[in-house]
Amino acid sequence: MVSPVPSRPVPARPPSYRVLVPVLLLALLLAQVLLEPRRAAAAPPAPGLLAPVVGPLGAPGGTLAVAVAGLVPVAPGLTGPGATGGRLVLRTADNGPAAARPLPTASLVKLFLAEDLLHRARAGTVTLGERDRRLLQDMISASNDPAASQFWDRFGGPQMVRDVAARYGLRDTAPPDDPSQWGETTTTARDLARFLGTLRQVADPEDAATLLSWMSATTPVAADGFDQRFGVFGTAPPATAVKQGWMCCLSGQRHLHSVGVVGNRVVVLLSEVPRSVSYGRARAALDGAAAALLSPPPG
């Protein structure tokens, strides 16, 4: 992030038991959703699937928001919210109120900026040169902050966020109160799971493939020197489509986020902890949660 400036991570400590138990339950639920598509499609959506994960590191006021999603076939004769072309439905699971709580995106807003610019370029309302496309890729893969600032200023960043939210039905995603601070855009784990889960249905297929390819080329170290190998990126197989985010210290809070598309699964991990909690401890919590969610399904 440009402002606030992220601090360097420190050696991680083991994630707490309070994080892993709810996340393991969430992993089992997701496996059931994806492995039993007919049953899942017949079942109504189930909000609040788990109790909120609060205090993920034993720190008062800390939150780990978790959401997972996958597109599964709709059973014959069934229709419902999220169905695409009558064949697929987005199934999601999350940890309840924590996943519905708006948090600052930090660098995850760069996904919205890239999607919107690709969409507008295809519609012919903006023109992107080769340099623009290289900067877009660097903004995603290396989390380049100056590139994000440039696109935000040139193309009306707050409206870009609103447009993406409208196209994808992101009810709790909004531009920042201070329009100059793109990292203070707010979203929820649920909204990010919906955005990534429906990207290949809402966006032009070529644009979706381009964005996912940039995410798949994420660099181990970001443009600002921050180690990006945590959470989904630190756990999933090589070349997984991921995006990382970090920021300190808005309202005295530290934020560390990780999202990814792993096969037919979307995994979203957003964390907020007091500034007194190090990046190392936050990284350990995200690493443990990602490992639980990405473990091979039972059976």
From TrEMBL:
GO terms for molecular function: beta-lactamase activity. This is Beta-lactamase class A. Residues 134-263 form the Beta-lactamase class A catalytic domain. InterPro entries: Beta-lactam/transpept-like (IPR012338), Beta-lactam_cat (IPR045155). It comes from Geodermatophilus telluris. Pfam families: Beta-lactamase2 (PF13354). GO terms for biological process: beta-lactam antibiotic catabolic process. It comes from the Bacteria.
